[in-house]
Inverse folding.
């Protein structure tokens, strides 16, 4: 069977983010490229933020998933530039994130702030409660109407 | 790249790597000890950001050095005199006020420095700094809010901030004195100092604090001459690799 890039991309759809397991790494936009170098498969990824402890796990998961599918010669390369932004998340990814109860980031907000839409009640009458959350990529906001504590993915972090 | 320029670049990258690593280690000491849960989480998140940044710098330095150097060998197997971190970041945490003030003084400096470096001719250095700036923006905002909250807070919180300024101020001067290896890195140290001073002054005014004047400034960190605190930090940080060489987990 001849390996195609499309086949590799297809497999990567089944590698999930360890922190937010409803999202695949493709939904998150952290896979930048796939290269076929002779018989080696190279997957190029970029971290969402520099200290992300999930990156090592994601690299491992990509390797495992490709091994399962019969690929042996694997290389995972991490690149920093251009820096990841939430704009690279797919629309599907943003929808899934919202369904999961995490407010999808909005380009308008450079960093976590008041007024981010609540994923449950869609209110924008919200107040930032804590810019740091259970992982460094999450912040907490208090919704004005629903009084739900909601989580937003930090727009740039 | 010429050998001299390459050495300078390596030393410069190591100095930022060391500074971010040591501050990450200091902030991590708060883990489980923060004044309230949210702030415990905040300071340790910042620690994690700094650790991630230091890993990027060490990885890049290791790549330039070659000779089987790795991020781990650079962090765990260099001695006190080889560390080039700022004296400011190795100072003990003190109380919450002192930790906050150190974070603010450093983050504000780091923000302005990286803002310059994001356009550096060295592409990898620029990429790491561009990535980190997004995180530093959060650190500046968070620590600024705390400086105002404590400075313009109760009589006790204000006194603690005044003590923190006394403790730390003399370590801020070396940020703006270029070491030999920093001289040709394309950094405008005058602009850095002026911008930093203006930002700090504005925030201190809002916090009803004042900027000390005519203080003797300590230096040496960038050249590997440290206060007694660094050795103690490294003893703890490097213990496992020293006791069990090459151990992995």
């Amino acid at each position: 069977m001849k390996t195609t890039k499309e086949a590799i991309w297809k497999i990567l759809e089944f590698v999930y983010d360890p922190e937010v397991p409803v999202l695949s790494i493709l939904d998150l936009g952290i896979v930048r490229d796939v290269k076929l170098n002779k018989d080696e498969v190279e997957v190029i990824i970029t971290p969402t933020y520099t200290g992300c402890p999930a990156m090592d796990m994601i690299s491992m998961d990509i390797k495992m998933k490709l091994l399962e599918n019969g690929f042996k010669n694997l290389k995972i390369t991490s690149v920093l530039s251009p820096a990841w932004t939430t704009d690279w998340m797919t629309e599907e990814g943003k929808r899934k994130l919202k369904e999961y109860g995490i407010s999808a980031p909005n380009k308008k907000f450079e960093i976590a702030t008041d007024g981010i839409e609540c994923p449950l009640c869609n209110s924008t009458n919200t107040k930032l409660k804590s810019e740091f959350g259970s992982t460094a990529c999450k912040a907490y906001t208090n919704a004005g109407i629903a009084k739900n504590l909601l989580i937003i993915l930090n727009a740039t972090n | 790249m010429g050998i001299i320029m390459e050495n300078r670049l390596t030393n410069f990258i190591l100095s930022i790597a060391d500074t971010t690593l040591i501050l990450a280690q200091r902030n991590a000491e708060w883990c489980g000890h923060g004044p309230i849960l949210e702030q415990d989480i905040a300071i340790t998140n910042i620690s994690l950001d700094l650790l991630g940044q230091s890993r990027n710098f060490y990885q890049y330095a290791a790549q330039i050095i070659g000779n089987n150097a790795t991020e781990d060998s650079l962090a765990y197997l260099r001695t006190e005199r080889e560390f080039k971190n700022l004296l400011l970041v190795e100072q003990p945490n003190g109380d919450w006020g002192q930790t906050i003030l150190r974070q603010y003084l450093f983050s504000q400096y780091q923000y302005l420095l990286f803002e310059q470096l994001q356009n550096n001719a060295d592409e990898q250095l620029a990429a790491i700094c561009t990535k980190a700036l997004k995180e530093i923006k959060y650190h500046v905002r968070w620590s600024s809010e705390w400086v105002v909250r404590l400075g313009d807070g109760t009589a006790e919180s204000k006194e603690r901030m005044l003590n923190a300024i006394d403790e730390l101020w003399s370590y801020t001067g070396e940020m703006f004195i270029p070491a030999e290896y920093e001289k040709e890195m394309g950094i405008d140290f005058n602009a850095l100092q002026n911008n930093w001073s203006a930002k700090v002054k504005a925030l201190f005014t809002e916090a009803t604090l004042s900027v000390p004047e005519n203080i003797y400034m300590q230096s040496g960190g960038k050249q590997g001459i440290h206060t007694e605190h660094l050795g103690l930090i490294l003893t703890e940080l490097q213990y496992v690799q020293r006791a069990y060489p090459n151990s992995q987990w």
Residues 133 and 139 of chain A are 5 Å apart (CA to CA). Residues 54-68 of chain A form the longest helix (15 residues).
